[in-house]
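User: I'm curious whether this sequence folds into something compact or stays loose and floppy. Could you predict its structure so I can see for myself?
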Amino acid sequence: MGKFLKGILGGFSGKIGNVIGAVWRGVDYMRSLPRKSSKPATEAQLIPRLKMKVVVGFLRSINDLIKIGYQSYKGKQTPMNAAVAFHIDKAITGVYPNLNINFPKVVFSKGRLLRPSAPGVESVTPAKIKFEWLNNAPATGSSSAATDMATLLLYNPGKEQFVTAEDVAARSGLTFTLDVPAEWIGDDVHAWMSFVGVNRKEVSDSVYVGTTAVL
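Assistant: Here's the prediction. I'll summarize afterward.
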């Protein structure tokens, strides 16, 4: 994709011949249409395509968390682009064509605040998941604070559904119990958590808390 210099009519958006014009973040671009090939794609070509499909399919449902969690990525890389690149590189498991998300490697937030300390997760009835953690914020001299707010994430792979909860408890609160759909009873779920500063400008890395069966 090349940078497009404006002519007397300025930039353009849309298709003209075999060229597509677009504007992204205030910059005009143009690129040629890809040439169609009659040759079947090779496995080396199909593998990255499938990785992209798997990662995007997983992350797009938590786009709001990604926007906050990867907000420090500046310039021409959007938070979602940064998250997709990270997970393609770090969070894919299996052998083609059986590629899947490696859940313990999922990171929905990356930042400078202290990560959750000694997080734990357990099921409590009826259809509730309890998170616990320690308050590891120093008294002074750190951007991390006892007032940082927890963001919680649950994923049910059997039903391909998420439950998210943002700003639900302070770092000093030590625990929060999250309601899940009743139809999840009997299913295994994966859990993650992170912290966000009260100004929502600073975040911690998210951590994988573990898995539990919904009671």
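Summary: The two ends are 51 Å apart (CA to CA). The helical segments are 43-59, 63-69, 79-90.
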